[in-house]
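B., you asked whether I could sanity-check this one before it goes into the benchmark set. Here's the sequence:
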Amino acid sequence: MYDINNLGNYYGLQRFGSERLVTHLVGKAILERKFDKATEILMTCTTKYDSKFSREIREKLRDIKSNPNLLHEIPPGMDIEKNLAQAILRGKDSISALRTIPINIRRLFVQAFQAYLFNKTLSIAIRDDFSLNVPEENDLCFDVYDDSLIFGKIRKYEKEKPIVEYIDCRLLDYQDILSNLVKIDLIRY
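And here's what the prediction gave me:
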């Protein structure tokens, strides 16, 4: 029997696009304001899991302006790609083309990149044996207002400069989450 002190709770593959793992790459391109690249990734990037037909369609989408009849070949499962292709054929720029995708889907791209960064950070923390329960200098954490687990603003943890108004600053652990006592004030910056 093994003792497990830290168990990483990673985001699963579905967050990144279960078969075509490009969702986080699109999110990264959007955050970098590389909208042409985001559009290109969505339309043309293939993986080993793509079917031969899908790879052929995506190869043709690289030059949609020379293949306008391709719109009739794009299958229903590629509706995002079809929307982008239609917008490009109408002369729209990449930002306008991306805006043809519903906002909730566009947000998923950015959230997928956030999840990717979280997974990478968690992997490094576990590999390097960082504490996942006690904050270290410059960690971002919630200020704890009282023992009822009501959390306030996120701040950098400074061991030498505690903020007197707050009782504690600590990271959530799995017991906090399971207790159903956690309440987080959502603050927009």
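One thing to flag: Residues 143 and 169 are 5 Å apart (CA to CA). Otherwise nothing jumped out at me.
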